[in-house]
Amino acid sequence: MRLRRSVSSVLSVGLMAGLTLVAGATPGSARPAPAKHPVAQGFFGAVVSDTPESTQAGIDVLRRGGTAADAAVAVAATLGVTDPYVAGIGGGGFLVYYDARTHQVSTIDGRETTPAADTETMFVDPSTGKPYAFPTGVTSGLSVGVPGNLATWQRALQRWGRFSLADNLRPAEEVADRGFVVDDTFRELTRENAARFAQFSSSAAQYLPDGQLPVVGSTMRNKDLADTYREIGRKGIGALYGGSVGRDLVNAVQNLPLAAGSTLKPIPGPMQLSDLTAYKALDTAPTHVNYRGYDVYGMAPSSSGGITVGESLNILQNFDLKNMDPVQALHHYLEATRLAFADRGRYIGDSRYVNVPQQQLLSPQFAASRACLIDPTKAGVSPVAPGNPASPTPCATGTAASAGDDENHTNHFVVSDAYGNVASYTNTIEELGGSAIVVPGRGFLLNNELTDFNFAPTQGTAPDPNLPAPGKRPRSSMSPTIVLQHGKPFLAVGSPGGSTIITTVLQILLNRIDFGMNLEDAIAAPRATQRNTATSTAEPAFIALPTTAGLQALGQKFAINDTSPLDPTIKIAPTIGVASGLEFRPDGRVIAAGEPSRRGGSAAAVVFPTCYCD
Ligand code: GLU
């Protein structure tokens, strides 16, 4: 349905609706969820996030004069309530921010860190000398990294906020107190986690009421989390980084809150309060490439996102994708990321621990040396070898190594404000449901981010840049991105999806910049992801495209992934990513676009809407 209304009529209807909701809500009852639209257009600021409550929280902050940083904190904190399996203060993430005063793009690295007591062999089972199975690492205290989200929020507010942390946490407290209405998506995501949540008394109490999946239409409250946010609001982030909340967190990691009758024997973790005290969110310089005249800014290590998206764009810059036959254009897209992922595996890790040749990896010369390996007549055979960025030799190949892989869940949201600032923020607790451990009495799930390290070396005789070390940040794929055109914001995009994040962001950029789609279509379009593996994972809708036969004739192979990485008996939707984006039009309009249907669809809204265009 496409609704087009005048600014003034929408404004008055929207404000009246807001007032009605406030007046009509009884204490303790969930507010009716604001309407969920995947696309909105208008002026003076916008939010696209996973849930209507989190989007509304951001819009409310923007309407009160908050900046994109203020609103981002309100959105992220509310997602901790309404989207708790992929968000919250138990996790970490990466924020890319355009500051309209300085015209600069900056980034904050809020990635989790490894406790000081951990070592390179932390994921090797001492009883066998072999790496733990992935699911063993996931549901454990061992994989819990020191969370970075709260420190990121505080740092963003210090740099760009107008309101206090306490102010920006308030909308989330209200949603947690009143509760939100459980929908099909929330129930489904709980189903995928139910067996793990049942292992921990605190997790079962919060997310499996009466031991059952929450009923669609029921109200899910989280009083513990509301109180935790209030405590943090009063005491500051030190409550978590060394204080009372931190003590409870450390206790949960060391002494797992197992349910009576739990069948797993999860491994506890060695985290100490001193690990929390030592945590810092880092101001880092963004990655930058110029792609067909657009300045593309992304996240530098500890995320591999900015470099790998950037290298792929640089490789593709060698080809005229726009005027290529569609089969060839997609073939080049798949081949570019096949090559870039080989380089990612070989060279990218936490740059405070390993020497990441970022500048060389992002140089046009290196990209040219990789581009000439793309054969228009046939697909590469993975694993393909990494290149040598220190001395790029055209078309040179080296020794192939196995491709480490991951493919899980998180959330991405975007915010802009009336001042012209833009936030693109991907954050996560890693696996859907993280470690599955809710901190008792605190209402938030702990991450299992340390499983993003390689459990064992993956690079043959070459060093693996992504092995664990004390204090190190595991390599991420999160790729929050901001694109400027002539120095002004043009796009802000990002997605969840483990290492598929990189290809999803790339695909959206290509769809928008090269293939002439509008942002809404660029996000909705079917996806496929090639990460230096023999077979590309693809959505069923991608395989149904008329281009597939031609791609297969070139040797491209596709498979659908519809099972949980933790348990092959658990069926999941065979989708890739849950993207959101903003596009800034020359007339001052902002187009806010998310998913029409993946993972239940996105909630887009603008401060002064001219169109809800779904
Ligand atoms: N842990 C993943 C990463 O940092 C993100 C989680 C996900 O999207 O699955 O790349």
Task: Describe this structure in a few short sentences.
This protein has 614 residues and is an alpha+beta fold. It is built from 19 helices and 19 strands. The radius of gyration is 23 Å and the shape is globular.
Structure description:
The strands form 3 sheets. Strands 1, 2, 3, 4, 7, 8, 9, 10, 11, 12, 13, 17, 18 and 19 form a 14-stranded antiparallel beta sheet that branches. Strands 14-15-16 form a 3-stranded mixed beta sheet. It has a two-stranded antiparallel ribbon with strand order 5-6. Helix content is 33%, strand content 16%. The chain has helices at residues 7-24, 52-63, 68-82, 134-138, 149-160, 165-178, 184-197, 201-207, 223-235, 244-254, 273-277, 305-316, 326-347, 358-361, 364-371, 500-513, 519-524, 540-543, 548-553; strands spanning 3-4, 39-49, 92-99, 104-110, 180-181, 219-220, 282-284, 287-291, 294-298, 411-417, 422-428, 481-485, 488-494, 528-529, 536-538, 558-559, 580-584, 590-593, 603-612. Helix 3 (68-82) runs parallel beside helix 6 (165-178). The protein has one domain. The protein has 614 residues and is α+β, with helices and mostly antiparallel strands.
Helix content: 25-40%
Q: What percent of residues are in strands?
A: 15-25%
Biggest sheet details = 14 strands, antiparallel
> What is the tally of beta strands?
19
Tally the helices. Answer: 19
Given the C-alpha coordinates, what overall shape results? Answer: globular
Give the termini separation. 6 Å
Rounded mean pLDDT score: 92
Q: How many independent structural domains?
A: 1
State the oligomer: single chain
Bound molecules: glutamic acid
Signal peptide: 1-25
Region (Disordered): 383-404, 456-478
Subunit structure: This enzyme consists of two polypeptide chains, which are synthesized in precursor form from a single polypeptide.
Pathway: Sulfur metabolism; glutathione metabolism
